[in-house]
Design brief:
elongated
Length: 261
Amino acid sequence: VGPKPPRPPRPRHNARHPQWMQQRDVRLAQHEAEAKRLGLEWRVMAACIFERGQVVTSDPEPWEVEYLNLRERIVNHRRDEFLAHLGGPTEGSPVFPGPRPSLETIATTLPFTPAPRETPADASDDRRSLQRRLKEPLFLLVQRHRREHAWQFPQGRLLEGETLKQAGERVLQRAVGGPRGIDGWFMGNGPTSWNFYAYPEEVRDKRKQYGAKVFFMRGQFVGGVPRLQEKLYKDHVWITQSEVAEYVDEDFAFYIQHSLI
């Protein structure tokens, strides 16, 4: 038997990503040079990628169904062999002949009715609800009181003496905390990703800053009732990774979706 042929290389998660990152580095270098020429600093911002985790298991893939069916047949076959070795089931034995009951059959014997995997919020596509798309993680976006670039992750300026984690916690509570606050768990002290953008000229002249560098902190929803602070924000949604592109521009959506895994 000869050597095994080499395994073909695995395809990239997204072949466009490395090229896009190189182009992003070029744009950043150009902005840095322009900011230096104008003698302006960048504003440091902290943003919160706030996630409601997956609530129920995902639907199995076809290959998973095939594997589970095969495993069930193997278990049934081994049980039958064991019973045959014993000469059949004995009185009081916990082992019974025949196939095991299905999950659907077992569910009918429970003292409660399992909740549906699809909810009314799914049927109405209520994106303000946490009770939608239970099979996938959801992420919080808020809408500012403006027309352009209105949708964003909760974000705000880094205050003096704050760490990025503290700033991320603060901007989250400011956005949806309400009077009693919201319980969230932040996974670390460092950002999971970052982005930059230059201010329009009128904003640049007003703030005496070239643009913003936004550092994204990752947090998970633990409990509480999110209540939007309407003084700062107009609306909010809980969306999946694939729905982000419906709310932000294509370039940013392509970048940030890699951070929502």
